[in-house]
Write a structure and sequence with these properties.
Blueprint: E1 5-6, E2 14-17, H1 23-36, E3 43-46, E4 49-52, E5 56-61, E6 67-69, E7 72-74, H2 84-94, E8 100-106, E9 113-116, E10 129-135, E11 138-144, E12 155-160, E13 164-168, H3 172-175, E14 176-180, E15 190-196
The structure holds 2-oxoglutaric acid and fe (ii) ion.
Length: about 200
């Protein structure tokens, strides 16, 4: 496993390791999760309207780690065998014991996630979120909620390749929104695992 490094311009808040999981392990994990996870379409509430999320998802976690995500309460699915050791390794890398993960499957370039922050109350005020990406490389964009002293709205675009780990911590959710835009490029499926710690 490669060490996490601070992203320039986001020191102390966002870290990543582009090739965190060795390719063979990342390949095996993608295959296992693609089959083992009961993927479903979640409903999101955006500006008071319910929409079907343009991706498939599954909430996984310890039995008492219930969670509200975009207006819906989820009781987590149990950890698939292939995922439990990954949870432990990601927890060690990020320095926090994660008890849940939102797994996302982006079937092709039309699947996406709009602007949001991972700021649900269950995560506490300054949550640590660790995001492991498998499969097709997609662009992940962080955009500041407010302009800086020069009037510039900071924007950071990251490619998240197969096996990469991204950690957001500190005030990242309070100060930034993030999104995974659609792409017209022909891309294969991507699985993203966003590990979270639900406070009880
Ligand atoms: O797919 C990604 O990289 C990000 C997903 C995300 O932000 C989320 O599910 O909260
Ligand atoms: Fe998110």
């Amino acid at each position: 496993m490669k060490a996490l490094r601070d992203m320039s311009g986001l020191e102390g808040a966002v870290q990543r390791a582009p090739h965190w999981l060795p390719v063979a392990e990342a390949d095996a994990l993608f295959e296992a999760l693609h089959i083992d996870i009961p993927w479903a379409r979640h409903r999101l509430r955006i500006f008071g309207r319910e929409i079907e999320a343009p991706r498939l998802s599954c909430w996984i976690g310890d039995p008492d780690a219930t969670y509200r995500y975009s207006g819906t309460r989820f009781v987590p699915q149990p950890w698939p065998a292939a995922l439990a050791p990954v949870r432990d390794a990601v927890s060690e890398a990020a320095g926090i014991a994660f008890n849940s993960v939102l797994a996302n499957l982006y079937r092709d370039g039309q699947d996406a996630m709009g602007w949001h922050s991972d700021d649900e109350r269950e995560l506490g005020p300054r949550p640590v979120i660790a995001s492991l990406s498998l499969g097709a490389t997609r662009r992940f964009v962080l955009k500041a909620r407010a302009p800086d002293a020069d009037g510039v709205v900071a924007r950071h675009v990251l490619a998240l390749p197969h096996g990469s780990l991204l950690v957001m911590r500190g005030d990242t959710q309070a100060l930034y929104r993030h999104a995974l835009p659609r792409t017209a490029r022909p891309v294969g499926p991507r699985i993203n695992l966003t590990f979270r710690k639900i406070l009880r």
